[in-house]
Give the backbone structure.
Amino acid sequence: MGLFRDQPYLIREQEPLAEGAVLLRGYAADQANVLWDALTKILDTAPFRHMFTPGGFRMSVAMTNCGDAGWISDRSGYRYAPLDPVTGLHWPEIPASFQSVSTGAAVLAGYAGFEPDVCLVNRYEPGARLTLHQDKDERDFTQPIVSVSLGLPAVFLFGTTTRRDRPRRIRLESGDVAVWGGTSRMAYHGIAPLADGEHPLTGRSRINLTFRKAL
Ligand code: SIN
Ligand code: FE2
């Protein structure tokens, strides 16, 4: 466990997950309100929606994006799209508060120079889940994934680069930031079905911000 009392954000501990992967517990906790306020503005332009998998299943997680492109899924596949297919508009810009949390966490995790150009926003309501997957729609796999949790706690499944290896189960709470890159960049990961609850910031939901260099 490492303490980072001289850092600009309140940090409780740094927990290695695997080579190249770390959990920064509480890293974004003192920014949670600011991030939430910025998110409400994003939603005015790009509301949450449930996308469909290429196989035709409605995803239980509601999603939106900000940045130069947005991750979308539909019958023709997964990809980054420069325009929001629901509105026909550009996705909102990544707010400064989002940028600083994501780049700060990346630096602490050993990925100085990370400059995200997209941010996928996931909303989990009780029962919603994300099955094990790899993030592989990005162009540059030398860049890490930075994932910020807000609201209700969740069980993060974090495996290896081999799908059949049983994933670790890690509790993520509001303000926790997970970063994975290097030899863990292609680690399988997911979220177990969200338990019901009520959170003072987000109500009956969990929000996840996933920052990537995608383009
Ligand atoms: C993701 O894999 O895109 C999201 C993970 C999470 O919600 O923590
Ligand atoms: Fe992912």
